[in-house]
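Take a sample.
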Amino acid sequence: MTTSDAEQFREQMAELTKKQNAHAHERKEDLKNDNEGSLPESYFNEFLVQAKLEPGLFTRFYAYARENNLNRSSALKILIATHPQIKKIR
């Protein structure tokens, strides 16, 4: 990669990051408006769910996602939304 290629790549990445950050800010504003009030900055990290899974559990989870033509995020959302104990909670 030549210097000009590297510079062009950095400029493209900077522009994409700028657009992504602008979109995230717009979405955050939409969420604030949808919830009729100002939400604290820390609230937005609450939407992220992560877990370290044992290999066997991950294999079963990933198989479920593939069998249902889902990405991991969508598969997790469906599993949480349809879990009988969670459905009882209102």
